[in-house]
Amino acid sequence: MADFVGAVDQGTTSTRFMIFDHAGNEVAKHQLEHAQILPRSGWVEHDPVEIWERTNSVIQNALRHKNLTAEDLAAIGITNQRETTVVWDPRNGRPYYNAIVWQDTRTDSIAAALERSGQGDVIRRKAGLPPATYFSGGKIQWILENVDGVRKAAEDGHALFGNTDAWVLWNLTGGPDGGIHATDVTNASRTMLMDLETLDWDDELLGFFGVPRSMLPSINSSSDREAYGTTRTSRPLRAPIPITGVLGDQQAATVGQVCYAPGEAKNTYGTGNFLVLNTGTELVRSQHGLLTTVAYRFGADPAVYALEGSIAVTGSAVQWLRDQMKVITDAADSETLARTVEDNGGMYFVPAFSGLFAPYWRSDARGAIVGLARYNSNAHLARATLEAICYQSRDVVEAMEQDSGVHLDVLKVDGGVTANDLCMQIQADVLGVPVSRPVVAETTALGASYAAGLATGFWRDTDELRTHWQESKRWEPEWSEDRRQQGYADWKRAVERTLDWAKVE
């Protein structure tokens, strides 16, 4: 039996390939960034061909780094930036347009029209999602309506849609030469096109967006021995390795954080923040601005559902400090700079660059820095940026407690921003509960590996996976309750200043 399981982690800013052993330890990793294409304000795109090339490179380099071959892998899992939409020609593998990224807001008029027509209520009931620019359905509609020839190609069966999981899978399994067009329930649940109860594409929802069913991938379990096929013997793996796990990135992190029981939650800190609460096989419909989504489905078992709070801009706000504002030269500098001041100096930064996601869902919001005084410095801005990450997470925690009645005793965290000790301390202070980081902080790739390994028997069951989880560090709250409540009240006032700025047609 092969000794390792691999995972492709196709994210918003980079693609990586990670290899794990039976104990869930990282054995090898390679990662490459891809370009962020910003054609105009509110538009965010990626080049799907570049993403596929990066996928090739990171797989080859991760294996080469440890002198491994494809035969050393028992299986491969795929996890991905969800909602990012690719439409391509299956005859030659060429995308008809750049991938439209989940952060992109060009479809705000589509979302607004759905609300005005009353169709938004149907989408909430069937798909568990509000009509929003975030999700894939409106992005597919935009491509069909605005890219020459795509509507005709789709009607003729010459256009396929997928989030980036389906794009990577199709290419890994042969591309134009027999590539498998499939996705899993977690990715399908982010399109506004799948019924959460039937776990199938819904004709009424497809009609709202004018999407032909022939474009859509088959929907499978997140952990499945047969559905996703094997790699082809061409690049990057020159052997037929089974692909047996597919999960959207935040669901993969939920699996990697072993949140397998109702009431268990994790928060991933990446480009955005994503707090996911396992609600078991019960479909809990949010009344407070959260998403009802599929957490995972293993094999033939019933689907496990979740409440999710999705925040658009957290880690990418630090990137903004680095790339656009030139306040820092490296992301890690945000902590160093912020530590030079005791507090935010009365400054609050709401990074609503793409509007506000959960729990507000306001596409008319735009970023704002409020409370400025002559006294303030770039150090206060750095600290306010870290606090914005934490206050946005508290917004979601508050909504989650109202929807579920579950009060968090501890928040499990993962993702790149968790390397920032000051940010994690602020998070504990803002929430008033301990924050716990696992030994393997990159739980997204680990979760995809778990899903793949469960399908092949590499791991026995979820009880075995629980034994692998170990805490690396814990942060305890230090703020007084008065400081915590005053800070949050001021944050809420700052959020109000961002609203009704952008005009939505």
* Integer average pLDDT: 93
Strand content: 15-25%
Strand order of the largest sheet: 17-18-16-15-21-22-23
Strand count, sense and barrel status of the largest sheet are: 7 strands, mixed
Radius of gyration computed on alpha carbons:
22 Å
Uncertain spans, ≥5 residues at pLDDT below 50? none
Q: How much helical structure, as a percent, in the residues?
A: 25-40%
Overall structural class, as computed from helix and strand content, comes to alpha+beta
Distance between the termini: 58 Å
Could you describe the 3D structure shown?
By secondary structure, this protein is α+β, with helices and mostly antiparallel strands. Helix content is 34%, strand content 21%. It has helices spanning 48-65, 108-117, 119-127, 136-146, 150-155, 164-172, 185-188, 203-209, 249-256, 315-323, 333-338, 378-404, 421-431, 443-456, 462-466, 481-496; strands at 4-10, 14-20, 26-33, 45-46, 73-80, 85-89, 94-95, 99-100, 160-163, 182-184, 194-195, 200-201, 218-220, 243-248, 265-269, 273-280, 291-296, 304-311, 348-350, 368-370, 411-414, 435-438, 471-475. The strands form 7 sheets. It has a 7-stranded mixed sheet with strand order 17-18-16-15-21-22-23. Strands 3-2-1-5-14 form a 5-stranded mixed sheet, sandwiched between helices. The chain has a 3-stranded antiparallel sheet with strand order 7-6-9. A hairpin with a 4-residue loop joins strand 11 (194-195) and strand 12. The termini are far apart. The mean pLDDT is 93.
